[in-house]
Structure formats: C-alpha cells, structure tokens
Specification:
This protein is mostly helical. The protein has helices at residues 3-28, 32-91, 93-102. Helix 2 crosses helix 3 (93-102).
C-alpha cells in the first residue's frame, strides 16, 4: 500500500478505540439530570433558608411592635391623667385646698388636726 493509504487506515484504526474510550467516559461520568437535580435542590434549600430567616425576623419585629404599641398606649393614658391633674391643680379650688393641706397649709380660722405618733 501507499503512504497515503497507510495514513488513512492508521487514523481510522486509531480513532475507533478513542470512540470506545469516550463512550466509557460518558458511561462512568455523572448523568446530567443528576447534576441538574443537585443544583435545583441547592437553590431551593438556599431560598428556603433565606425565607425562613426573613420570616423569623418579621415575627421578632412584629412582637416588638406589639410591645411598643402597648407601652405607647400606657404612657399616653398616664400622660392624659397627669395633664388632667395639672389642670385641676391650676383651676379647681377643692384640689388646691386638698394639696395645700397635705403639705401643712391651712386657711385662716381653720383648725388643723395633727396626728400624734
């Protein structure tokens, strides 16, 4: 045979075993569906973890909001009671007299009873 024929036959003879090897590599390598499944699973778990963290933070913020709202209502009520007391102390004569007696003051011609200890 000629050199050209030998080259052709040698290349085709060499390429056939390579095809067999490549088929063996494909059979022994990880299937594409498995890699896809792993990637999708990791993505799903990552999204789940992020959402779980966000939900837990939302619950904490909601609880804190409830506590602060209750405290605001309590302080608002206390503030309105104090404002009413200040108004009474400025304008109501009975309240003024009562508070004056508490600190030992009295009107002229009024007898103050002092408890004996």
């Amino acid at each position: 045979m000629s050199k050209v024929a030998n080259t052709y036959w040698n290349r085709s003879a060499k390429s056939k075993p390579n095809n067999r090897r490549s088929k063996k590599r494909n059979n022994s390598s990880t299937p594409q569906w498995f890699i896809f499944t792993v990637i999708v699973s990791i993505t799903f778990l990552l999204c789940l973890a992020i959402n779980f963290r966000a939900l837990s933070e939302l619950k904490e913020e909601s609880d804190e909001n409830t506590i602060l709202t209750t405290e605001i209502e309590k302080l608002t009520t206390e503030n309105s009671l104090l404002l009413e007391e200040v108004k009474d102390l400025k304008h109501d004569p009975q309240t003024i007299a009562r508070e004056a007696r508490k600190i030992g003051m009295s009107r002229p011609n009024e007898k103050v009873l002092v408890p004996i200890k």
